[in-house]
Design brief:
Blueprint (H helix, E strand, L loop, with lengths): L3 H13 L3 H6 L5 E2 L6 E5 L7 E5 L2 H16 L21 H14 L11 H14 L4 H7 L10 H15 L10
Antiparallel strand pairs: 1-2, 2-3
Length: 179
């Protein structure tokens, strides 16, 4: 069984389409888990004033809340500037450490080995395939994955297509038929 940190990271990556580097830069203030679907504000690493909104499933939001609650229970002070994914010291994880943690979880689950090399990027590709399989237009898939496109799609349109894809993006719940 994986840690609550690993579970939260895997579910967040699989249901949002964000990159590992974006994941480790997330602060608590970037999460809006009260919205439906729960939203994440992703800041551009090169241009901090630029950002985009993506969404996560209720399943991923619950995993993130459980992980943050576990940290609070250990006595860690969690505020809006706290990194969502941190080392025991409270410092943000590096992308390399996060990717390594996910790779170890895949290996422990029996998905590793010489023939199959699963890594965090697989979750991003899975996210894209699931959105496309749900019927989402390419411009919406690209936007949610952070690919710059002009004109930028309207937020209502992005939210609509993401909401339609939720059954395809939920891992532990019932799976939709691809008929």
């Amino acid at each position: 069984m994986c840690s609550s940190k690993t579970r939260a990271a895997v579910l967040l990556l699989a249901s949002s389409g964000i990159r590992v580097g974006e994941l480790v830069r997330l602060k608590v203030a970037d999460l809006d888990l009260s919205q439906h679907p729960p939203a994440i504000r992703i800041k551009d690493a090169m241009r901090p004033r630029r950002w985009r909104i993506t969404y996560i499933t209720i399943e991923a939001a619950g995993a993130v809340q459980s992980y943050l609650a576990e940290r609070r229970n250990r006595g860690e002070r969690i505020d809006k500037d706290t990194p969502v994914f941190a080392y025991e010291s409270g410092a943000s994880m590096t992308p390399q450490a996060m990717a390594s943690m996910i790779r170890r979880a895949f290996d422990a689950a029996g998905f590793g080995g010489q023939r199959i090399r699963l890594e965090s990027q697989v979750l991003r590709r899975w996210f894209k395939r699931q959105l496309i399989g749900s019927g989402a237009p390419r411009k919406i898939v690209d936007f949610l994955c952070g690919h710059v496109r002009r004109p930028r799609p309207r937020e209502e349109e992005v939210k609509h297509w993401y909401s339609k894809a939720i059954p395809f993006l939920t891992i532990t719940g019932p799976t939709p038929s691809h008929a």
